[in-house]
Amino acid sequence: TDQKLIRNFAIIAHIDHGKSTLADRIIQLCEGVSEREMREQFLDNMDLERERGITIKAQTVRLNYRAPDGTEYTLNLIDTPGHVDFSYEVSRSLKACEGCLLLVDASQGVEAQTLANVYLALDHDLEIIPVLNKVDLPAAEPERVMEEIENVIGLDATDALMISAKTGQGVGDVLEAIVKRVPAPKGDPKAPLQALLVDSWYDQYLGVVTLTRVFDGTLKPGTRARMLGTRALHDVSEVGTFNPRRTKAKQLGPGELGYLIAGIKDIDETQVGDTITDEANPCAKPLEGYKPSVPVVFCGLFPADAGDYEDLRDALGKLRLNDSSFQFEPESSPALGFGFRCGFLGLLHLEIIQERLEREYDLDLITTAPSVVYRVMQRNGEVLELHNPTDLPDPVHIEAIEEPWIKATVMVPDQFLGNVLKLCEERRGRQVDLTYAGDRAMVVYNLPLNEVVYDFYDRLKSVTSGYASFDYHMEGYHEGDLVKLDILVNGEKVDAMALIVHRSQAEPRGRSVCQRLKDLIPRQLFKVAVQAAIGGKVVARETVPAMRKDVTAKCYGGDITRKRKLLEKQKAGKKKMRQFGKVEIPQSAFLAALKME
Ligand code: GDP
Ligand code: MG
Q1: Where does GTP bind (predicted)?
Q2: Cα separation of 221 and 503, whole Å?
Q3: Under 8 Å CB-to-CB from 503, ≥6 apart: which residues?
Q4: What distance in Å separates the CA atoms of residue 149 and residue 143, rounded to the nearest whole number?
Q5: Which pLDDT does position 474 carry in this prediction?
């Protein structure tokens, strides 16, 4: 491939502004797939992504584009996820590009993640092409949105393109803008190999597949590939590209984006952001990698059936290969047995991993209360990084507890501003800034992450009728008046439900958990007390009334098959229950009880 004719670009946008739809149109225009193969959101190939309509993993596709002047270009398109939990994936996609399309929904305008993504693109020195999408909508206001791009983002919008990814209007101009405005990749094919490990995943048939961007040199079958970070060494057996089908190639040169297969078995040997070089002629120094992604939310995952522990471990290992941003380590709990403590980038990330484990690996799981990482300053001078509320030392040994704070940016139409301020204040927020762009406000708050992980995003959507957008990054650790809230069922502590909360919120929080649990715990033959307590002091209490009569009684002496069916159903249901003393708690209750009203 002629290096001068390669263009590597990503599409960045706020969620739902039309990235995946535009990617589909571009693929179609370049005839990357036949009409028959084309289906909506072609690049979102995980079932879960299709169902949720969001892009989780960045995907790439190589396309041939014949420009009106007859020149044949090679375009590498990288689709990126838009949700705040996955900005890490965006950052790694951008590292492999020279330019990006900044897509803004012309009926919505600049949103919080539009901004966040622009900052990432500027960090990577990319050529940014502003594109207004959805101009087919009657509600589109391209002039207003152009002003926002200039005023809020500070980008020149005079050359912004007006398109409809849905109808295809203007998409040809997008391709022309890419080849004219995005620079060709630099790099020397004769220099020692220097390639970036962009992504890696586990394929059932091929083993570990690694996506790389070559900067210098050439990568080909037979290359002794050395990973500079992990020091792993493997003979490359195959290289190629995704067009979008996997297609073998003779070699990958500078500026090219493609995969390599090298019989790698160990998932930990391919770390995203690592530099790949040729052992026979190594490059002098590694590429600047990625900032490692740091999980900010932790929770325990336990198999509902203890016999599934090994299966769960295997599944977590495989998922981790496809998603290096999540972590896990073994943990055990008196109530839940053996499981894993897992770290995630956010709550959506947690839900997605949990759902994939249940769906793709057919595992029944119990998820414990998500928690952020606290720093516990102990009287003996040691600092404990607390990932699990149950590990909190006795208060007499504690000097202070620090909790992580975030800096959150919310963009919202003026009429909902009051609701947003109220929500942020309720969550112990401290206002940093408030500015306007037209009739939309941009509010910046410092907030304890602890107050955000459970349901802040859902609440924000509901108090603004879905009009607010939200983005955040870590700000730092600050001391807080924090206490451990224990949940007791029938007088027994349920360790998996322990929470760390701000003292001022212990009582309302405890009440809310108890009320929910009361409805989630099935009635027993006896009354069951549900309590929330700090130390030994009960701060909230509810009672699950006793069952009135035996529900199976009517089966006795009756239809035998019906009775057997009922028993089988009960047996299946049992697997999803956990025994606490004399009480069984359904698996679904663990996470459900923690949602706030
Ligand atoms: P992403 O989250 O940025 O990948 O957004 P999607 O591509 O999934 O699009 C979000 C929604 O907007 C989908 O329902 C699309 O059909 C719709 N959409 C995308 N582009 C257009 C457009 O140009 N016009 C209209 N009317 N709808 C669009
Ligand atoms: Mg998408």
Answers
A1: 16-21, 133-136
A2: 61
A3: 481, 482, 483, 534
A4: 10
A5: 82
- Name the token pair of 541: 């209490």
Tally of CB atoms within 10 A around 253: 22
Say if CB 467 and CB 412 are below 8 A apart.
Answer: yes
Around ion ligand 2, which residues have CB less than 5 A away? 19-20, 55
Q: What is the mean pLDDT of the chain?
A: 85
The candidate with the shortest Cα–Cα distance to 89, out of 194, 19, 182, is 19
How far CA 308 is from CA of 18, 60, 301, 350, in Å, comes to 40, 35, 12, 20
- DSSP labels for 58-104? -EEEEEEEE-TTS-EEEEEEEE---SGGGHHHHHHHHHT-SEEEEEE
Query: What pLDDT is stored for residue 88 in this prediction?
Result: 60
CB 103 within 8 A of CB 22: yes
Nearest one of 476, 385, 398, 386 to 430, comparing CA atoms: 476
For residue 426, the surrounding DSSP H or E stretch is: helix 417-426
390 is in an annotated binding site: no
Judged against a pLDDT cut of 60, whether residue 45 lies above it is answered with no
- Nearest CA to 6 out of 91, 80, 64, 92 is that of 64
Rounded-to-integer distance, Cα 88 and Cα 93, Å: 9
Question: What b-and-e string marks burial along 375-391, b requiring 16 or more CB atoms within 10 Å of the CB?
Answer: bbeeeeeeebebbbbbb
For 240-247, what is the mean pLDDT?
Answer: 83
More confident residue, 213 or 266: 213
**Ligand 1, residues 12, 14, 16, 162: which to mutate, most atoms within 8 A of Cβ?**
16
387 carries a ligand binding annotation: no
Ligand 1 site, residue 450, Cβ cutoff 6 A: no
Residue 334: closest CA among 300, 307, 376:
300
pLDDT in tens, 277-329: 999 999 988 887 666 667 888 989 988 888 999 999 999 988 887 676 788 99
DSSP code of 491?
T
By the 8 A CB rule, do 211 and 256 touch? Answer: no
Pocket test for ligand 1, best of 15, 21, 22, 89 (most atoms within 8 A of CB): 21
End-to-end CA distance of the chain: 57
**What is the structure's pLDDT at 57?**
47
CA 122 to CA 150: how far, in whole Å?
15
pTM comes to 0.72
Instruction: Say what the pLDDT of residue 44 is.
Output: 55
How many angstroms separate the CA atoms of 339 and 350, rounded? 15
CA nearest ligand 1 atom 14, residue: 16
The number of beta carbons lying within 10 Å of the beta carbon of residue 591 is 19
Average pLDDT over residues 547-555: 56
ipTM of this predicted complex? 0.99
Measured distance CA(235)–CA(256) in Å, rounded: 20
Find, among 80, 85, 87, the residue nearest to 456 by Cα. 85
User: What dihedral do alpha carbons 536, 537, 540, 545 form, nearest 10°?
Assistant: 50
248 among annotated binding-site residues: no
* Nearest alpha carbon to residue 388 among 315, 310, 318, 330: 330
